[in-house]
Design brief:
Helices cover about 50% and strands about 10% of the residues. By secondary structure, the chain is an alpha+beta fold. β7 (about 335-340) and β8 form a beta hairpin. α6 crosses α7. The termini are far apart. The structure holds protoporphyrin IX containing FE.
């Protein structure tokens, strides 16, 4: 960070209404609004109703916030709405509890483990594509969501669940994803208490999922059987200093967290990948050529992934253009300073991977889909901290390798056999909700051979 506080540009978002502040543009056109803010400063004040919040726009400021989690802890008005749903799991716990949980959970996400989960992922990818018919039009967004939900459920629970359980998890999560975002953005928190059909459906889905998770965790802890799945790794994990384990309650919260945090972002990223490939034939042709040459007719596997260099650049560029996690909040736990500006305890700080990734000062032609910007000799010019699809610091995504492996396997397996064509006349608009989705994405499945 520049040591001279005077070198930072402090700014304020333009416009804003007396009571609502910037709540309207943030609700109606959040991506456009956020991406416009770096123009006004390195740290930009935004008003969310009566609250003041600050968007860290300069990558060094974002890094500073993420590298100092004791001062800039998880929190903020959006986030407080999610906590009751996810419990005190890894994504929602405060600094102290998080440190212990992360130590206990990290080993289950080591590369060796993830590679072992790849069989479940491949099984689900093949089951999905096995249903496709040549010329069939289907919603790629919904298909990718179903795929990641099923693959995550199978990886977490392995043999402990029935096909009916997987279908239930898929149904409940679809309801929860819609409702979580509405709750996060409802200004007063009254709407979700009304007995509307939507709210009743949300509560039923939440209860059903909690019951299902409680049953599976109970069985896993009681039998102590290690089926090699993610839940067993979490249940048997011991803290290195005091040999403590995750309690049953913590295990349930972690499972809920992993189901919510682990399915939607990866599904959205995969849907964006097929949308961008379908609308950029020159990129698609190169990707197909690489996959044909590397796989040479063999099924995709984790062993082959390092050789799919262009495919990885494509996926990285997908995450730059449409980072599923598009905005996050932190809250100051004490009086703090950022960009030379004093912040009172309880101040909300925002960071937006979307605003960083679309900033022309950080990425030339930021709206252009250009996978080769990630060629090693060009990628080294990307400023540190400018590319943050998985966040950074102690709260960096624990599932980054899991999600990347799953997406790479899906892109390689599907593209080896199918070309997904856009449907003419269908418009695709980013949907910034809990994560950044495509909305309905109709595409035509054409066999490649
Ligand atoms: C392409 C896929 C994914 C993307 C882009 C993504 C993105 C992110 C980001 C940006 C964060 C940091 C949030 C913050 O700074 O507040 C995060 C956290 C997290 N992610 Fe992911 N994620 C992906 C896949 C996954 C998967 C597959 C899992 C689990 C199987 C997962 C589980 C989590 C958890 C538990 C956290 C909280 C970590 C902590 O606070 O220690 N994510 N993710």
């Amino acid at each position: 960070m520049p040591s001279e506080s005077s070198s930072w540009r402090l700014g304020a978002a333009p416009g804003g209404l007396p009571l609502l502040g910037h709540a309207l543009p943030l609700r109606r056109h959040p991506l456009r609004f956020l991406a416009s803010l770096p123009e006004y400063g390195d740290l930009v004040q935004v008003r969310l109703g009566p609250h003041r919040a600050y968007l860290a726009c300069h990558p060094d400021l974002v890094q500073h916030v993420l590298a100092n989690p004791r001062v800039f802890d998880k929190g903020g008005p959006f986030f407080d709405k999610v906590r009751p749903l996810l419990g005190n799991g890894l994504g929602t716990s405060g600094w102290d509890a998080h440190r212990r949980q992360r130590r206990l959970m990290q080993p289950a996400f080591h590369r060796g483990h993830i590679d072992a989960y790849a069989d479940e992922m491949l099984h689900e990818i093949k089951a999905l594509t096995g249903l496709w018919q040549p010329g069939q039009v289907f919603d790629v967004g919904a298909a990718m969501q179903a795929l990641t939900t099923r693959a995550t459920a199978r990886t977490l629970f392995s043999a402990d669940i029935t096909e009916q359980d997987v279908a239930d998890i898929q149904r409940c999560l679809a309801v929860l994803f819609g409702g979580i975002y509405r709750r996060m953005t409802a200004p007063l928190g009254l709407w979700e208490k009304l007995p509307t059909p939507g709210n009743r459906q949300f509560r039923r889905a939440q209860t059903r999922l909690q019951e299902l998770i409680a049953r599976i965790v109970r069985d896993c802890v009681r039998t102590g059987a290690d089926q090699g799945d993610l839940l067993a790794s979490l249940a048997t994990a011991r803290h290195e200093s005091d040999d403590s384990a995750l309690t049953d309650r913590e295990l349930r919260d972690q499972v809920m967290t992993l189901l919510v945090a682990g399915t939607e972002p990866t599904g959205h990223a995969m849907a964006w990948a097929f949308h961008l490939l379908g609308t950029h034939p020159e990129v698609e042709t190169r990707l197909h050529a690489e996959i044909d040459s590397v796989l040479a007719g063999r099924p995709a596997s984790v062993r082959e992934l390092p050789r799919l260099e262009y495919t990885r650049r494509v996926f990285t560029e997908v995450l730059r253009l449409y980072p599923p996690g598009w905005m996050f909040t932190r809250t100051t736990t004490t009086e703090a300073e950022l960009a030379g500006h004093r912040l009172a305890p309880g101040t909300t700080i925002l960071y937006s991977p979307y605003a960083l990734h679309r900033n022309p000062r950080l990425f030339p032609l930021p709206d252009t889909f250009a996978p080769d910007r990630w060629l090693p000799h060009r990628a080294k010019d990307v400023p540190r901290g400018a590319m943050l699809p998985f966040g950074a610091g102690n709260r960096k995504c624990i599932g980054d390798h899991f999600g990347t492996t799953e997406a790479m396997l899906a892109i390689a397996t599907i593209s080896a056999h199918w070309r997904l064509r856009p449907v003419s006349g269908a418009t695709v608009r980013p949907r910034p909700e809990t994560t950044l989705g495509t909305g309905p994405l109709p595409m035509v499945a054409e066999p490649r051979r």
